[in-house]
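Our collaborator T.R. sent over the components below with a one-line note: 'Predict the complex.' Nothing else. No constraints on interfaces, no templates requested, no preferences about which chain binds where. So this is a plain run: every listed entity goes in together, and whatever single assembly comes back becomes the starting point for the next discussion.
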Amino acid sequence: MQKRTFLKFSALAAATVLSLPLMAYAQNATLKIGFVGVTSGPAASWGVSNQRSMETRAAWLNELGGVKIGDKTYNIEIVPFDDQKDPKRAIAGMEKMAQDGVHYVVGPNVDDGAAAVRPVAEQNGIMYFPYAFPKELFTAPASNAILGMVANYQSGPAIYKFLKENKGVKKVAFVAANESDPLSQRESGIAAAEALGLEVVSGNVTYQVDTTDFTPVLLPVIQASPDLLVLSGVSPANAPQLIRSARELGYTGLISTETGQDASVLQEGAGELADGFISVGGASTPELASETMTEFVDRYTKMFGEYNDESNTKVYALEYILETLKANPAAIENVDEFKKTMDTFEAANPFMKGDAKLKYVGMTSFGQKRQVSVPLVVNEYKGGKFETLFVGQVD
Amino acid sequence: MEQIIANGLYLGAQYALIALGLTLIFSLMNVLNFAHGQMYVFGGFVTYTVVVQLGLPFIVGLFASAIVLAVMGAAIEKFLFAPVVRRSKRDESTMLLAAGIAFFLDAVILLFFGEKQRGVPKIVNGVLNLDMRIIMPYDRILIGVLAILLIVAFIAFMHYSRTGRAMRALAQDKVAAQLMGVNVSRYSMIGFALGAMLAGLVGGLLVTITGVNLGMGGPTSVKAFLMIMIGGAGVISGAIAGGFILGMMESVGLTVLSAYGDITYLVIFASLMVFLAVRPQGLMGKPWG
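Returned assembly:
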């Protein structure tokens, strides 16, 4: 009898001990972070890399027992919404976030979506991190949007200056998709090139986003004989085909863009023709990536089968939200507290080697700190992977 | 000028092949297959998987695309379109079904093949350069020739095979064909499978040139509809003519109108509106359908 009782107690004790971590995990409060962006259609790659970066990091943090903010520990729940790159859907997505009590949202991915959600975000006390560049979203009186990456009007001048000084570029041509983002990026690119004294030999050729053969599109551009061909706001889907068509037409000059690209997509779509292609990336090159970044890439790959190089930048937004909340727990329910903290906030950047910091910047471009500080890493594609050309900083 | 014509012919060959499958399905079943572009994309992804992921030769990928899409087309016709056509006399029922299948295939493609642009390495290297008057990569020439060969093979099949003749009879007069002993449901299924197979084949061919991504389906369907509206819906020769006309218009427009911005498709759509107002049945279609 005693033996049976002993066994019962032992079993109960073992079950209790084994379930303790699980209970702790379950007892954590939940912190919902939203994502409103494009995860379907031709630009799906932009939003999917955002969403998956957030989900990978959230799962990792939850596995470690959650995130301690103030006195409470939270499990992170990502609430995604596909806006299909449609501003009306983006508004619906932001309204859904408001109804769900979400105060921090990553996205939208494009200019018109980001502009469209502004009233909803401001009325409902939501801070959002667009990957879109309209300055009016980040300059006063707007105060709820925080630029989640480096804008083209910040990276473009740096790239053109580097190429002018180091590669002897004198003549530039621009080609852009006939959509608001690429067109506005082309305009600011032309302005930056002209300000540097470069001659713009072609600046009005555009293409439909669903173009499948770029040879006729690029023919007049290549005939203008530029030293540098800028693919303004080019999507990862179109970049390899544009590069391939330009090279097949006999173009031997430089090709660059200010958007993030994926090495495997370039490799499959353009192969060695993409060698020398210059684009903007995040901190995943071996010279810059920390062990945490390497582990993030591994976890992302395990979770979704394949890594997306665009996530090198997209990994940051969630980290900024959580670290700022840790710095001021009152901001969980009150975004005004978040805004107050942004001005002085500083934390270690876990994704980069050395003493890099997470901090808000943007004073020069926007007159207020409404941009996350991510490294301006300019990459050159070579032999199937990116190599760092130079690293800059934005403010 | 020579370059514009060469670009137009290359574009026309691939467009004609895309439009053929769509017009075949329309002529047999009076169904506007809005999922045709998604089938094209699916075919591209199948070839990509076989060639890049499994490391098999390109020709195997092409066959795999043809077979997978033919089976998919047959299944879609038998289990989805045939019951709807049987039970509903309203055309919009099949249109809604086709739109639903398009959305479904988009979701399936995202699930199985991911969000990234995919491509198969060039199957032939090198560029034909005739004194800078015509510049055409060899792989485009090869794909253009293959597309034209497939169009010829398709026409021969429709004219000289028993199945092809049965399908043409069905397209001309369903009741008369039925009275002559043509099995309507069987040949409708074969026709749909053939149409889907053509979409898959083009996807497989073009994945080596243009690559393929999740969002290409819708715009491809729109272009295919444009071609069959130009040539005449349900007419094989009309689809081929429509494909080459659209290819040539696009090539000329992108070169001649490039100085005025991206107005090529604006001009094409405006021209099509005027053309349809004058000849609503298209170039080779009949006014009575």
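Summary for T.R.: The mean pLDDT of chain A is 89.
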